[in-house]
Amino acid sequence: MGTRAGAPRQDAAAPPPSPEGGAHAVVTTGLTKRFRGGQLAVDGVGLAVPRGSVYGFLGPNGSGKTTTIRMLLGLVTPTSGSWSLLGAPMPGGLARTLPRVGALVEGPAFYPYLSGEANLRRFDAADPGADPRTARARIGAALDRVGLTAAAGKRYRAYSLGMRQRLAIAAALLGPRELLVLDEPTNGLDPQGTREVRALIKEIAGDGTTVFVSSHLLGEVEQMCGHVGVMRAGRLVAQGPVAALREAGAAPRLRVETPDVAAAAAALSRAGLDGVRPGDGEVTAHAGEQPPERICALLVGEGVAVRGFGVVRPTLEEIFVGLTGEGFDVEA
Ligand SMILES: Nc1ncnc2c1ncn2[C@@H]1O[C@H](COP(=O)(O)OP(=O)(O)OP(=O)(O)O)[C@@H](O)[C@H]1O
């Protein structure tokens, strides 16, 4: 989609160096929202979003992602807790900080009969903080950033789903942004549109912008994000680099295929292995410190018919299902 390839250009997404330091673009402490009526939507969430990261905010529908995002942007008042954006404590710093934050929470309503460019002009004109004198350059840069320069004059209704969503992201990039917050940006897109948006997010992150992106799709987060925060029923149940979560959650297990399930399970327990789980024609257990070949020899020595033997690591999906207690949609 892009015309990137290193050519110098005015880039709406490239942030200027931030005067406010700090290793994190977003920090929350005990962020909580209880709606009138008693619903505890977000419960003591402590986010730490490293600057420059693509941070996937992952959780099933209804787990509190949108409410958290709305609190970050000052659209919903937290019941308790505190937060900062780009190093500035909120909500006091909202007016000063929000111009450096692009957000796509509920997609902007675009006019079908206007071109993409004309839609952005209207959108920009409605922003009291946007300087009309620089509108043309900023709109041009945003369209370029999302790869819509060639289609700028085309009517919105003729845009594909992916182009429509890229235009919505362009609307969030009408100024230099240090942080881009996207709530389920690929929801409702076809596979091609999903690929376009995912590639765009990676490009924007490549410019140095921190991207905070929510999703209920594990596969999507795995493909796009270096960091992840996992929500379950309003609580943040895990957070960190994807690789570290994978490593921490992926304690290797021994898997023994055998018709003698009960005998194999008993032998593994006697050998001191934890987490022995008999299954259908197989037994698994935590691999522990003992060399697998010794365990295998021990099983054979005890007369267990070993048909297959191996060390397996849980997939990322299995780790997250363990964390959230429910299945994730892994399609992306
Ligand atoms: N304005 C509101 N008033 C009362 N309850 C609400 C309100 N907004 C959200 N909730 C509830 O808070 C919980 C969290 O919703 P939220 O939209 O934040 O979750 P989510 O993870 O973003 O899910 P989804 O992707 O489906 O929007 C849900 O149970 C929802 O019904």
The unreliable regions are 1-19
Give the ordered list of helices and strands: EEEEHEEHEHHHEHEHEEHEHEEHEH
Tally of helical runs: 11
Rounded to an integer, what's the Rg over CA atoms? 25 Å
Give the N-to-C terminal Cα separation. Answer: 19 Å
How do the strands line up in the largest sheet?
A: 7-8-9-4-10-11
How many strands? 15
β-strand percent reads: 15-25%
Q: Mean of the pLDDT scores?
A: 87
CATH architecture of the largest domain: 3-Layer(aba) Sandwich
Largest β-sheet summary: 6 strands, mixed
Helix content estimate: 25-40%
The name CATH uses for the topology of the largest domain is: Rossmann fold
The total domain count is 2
The CATH homology group name of the largest domain? P-loop containing nucleotide triphosphate hydrolases
Shape: elongated
| Structural class by helix and strand composition | alpha/beta
CATH C-level name of the largest domain = Alpha Beta
Pfam family, one: DrrA1-3_C
Region (Disordered): 1-23
Domain ABC transporter: 26-258
Keywords: ATP-binding, Nucleotide-binding, Transport
